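anyone seen this seq b4? input:
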Amino acid sequence: MKSDKKRIELLDELRGLAILAMIVHHTFYDIGFVLGLDWGYKVFDKLCVLQPVFWSIFIIISGICSRLSRNTVKRGAIVLGAGLAVTLVTAVIMPKMGITGAEIYFGILSCLGSCMIITGLLMPLIEKVKPAVGMLVSALLFAVGYGISSGTLLFGLVKLPHNWYTTNLFMPLGIYSSSFESADYFALIPWFFMFLFGAFLGKFARDGAFPAWTYKKHAKALSFVGRNSLWFYLAHQPVIYAVMYAVMLIIVQIYK
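predicted toks r here
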C-alpha cells in the first residue's frame, strides 16, 4: 500500500483488537504472578480457550502484511531483534533482579520475525503459486504440524518418536524436552504455515481486491493500537508490572 487511501483499515483494527485481548489476558496472569492472587491465574486459564482465535488473527494479518511490505526481510529482522531483546530482558536481566518464572524463549515476536524473514526469502517462489492453491496447502500443512510440541501430528493422530524430545536444540521448530519452559512460546511449526496462509491471502490485498468496506476506518482506537502493535507489545508487560508492583507497595503500606 503506497498511500493511506488504499490502506486496509480493517487489518489494523483486527490487529489492534488481538493485541488488546492479549494484554488483558496477560494482565490476569500478572495479577497471580506479581500480586500472588490465585483468582488471576484462574481467570487467565479460563481465557486460554480464546487464545488461538486472537493468535490466528494476529499471525494471519502479519502474513498478509508481508505481501504488502516493501522489504519483508528487513522488517522481519527488526521484529526478530525485538524478540531477542525480550528474551534478553526476561531470561537474563530479570532473573538477576530476583524475578523468575517470566522467561520468554522464542515468543510471538521471535516467531513472527523468523516467519517474515523466511517468507521474504521465499517470495519469488510464493509469487509463482496461485493464492488459492497456496492457502489450501498452507492450511493442510498447519493441520499436519499442529500438536508437534506435544509429540504428535495431525491433531494427535500421528505419534512422533519420544527420543526427538530429549533436547531443546530444536525448540524453535516445536521440538523440546520436558525441561523447557517459556512464558510465551510460538514454534515455527505449525505457526509458520498460518503465516504463509496469510501471505498467500495477501495477494488479494496487494491487488486491491478486498471488499470496499475493509478500506474504511471503523474504530480509531483499535486502528491506532494495530498500527503500533510492536510498541504496545514491547511496553505492555513493563507497564503492567510497574502498576502491579505499585499496587503491591500501596497494599503493604496500608497494612503496615
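The chain has a mean pLDDT of 91. The first strand starts at residue 152 and ends at 153. kinda curious what u guys think
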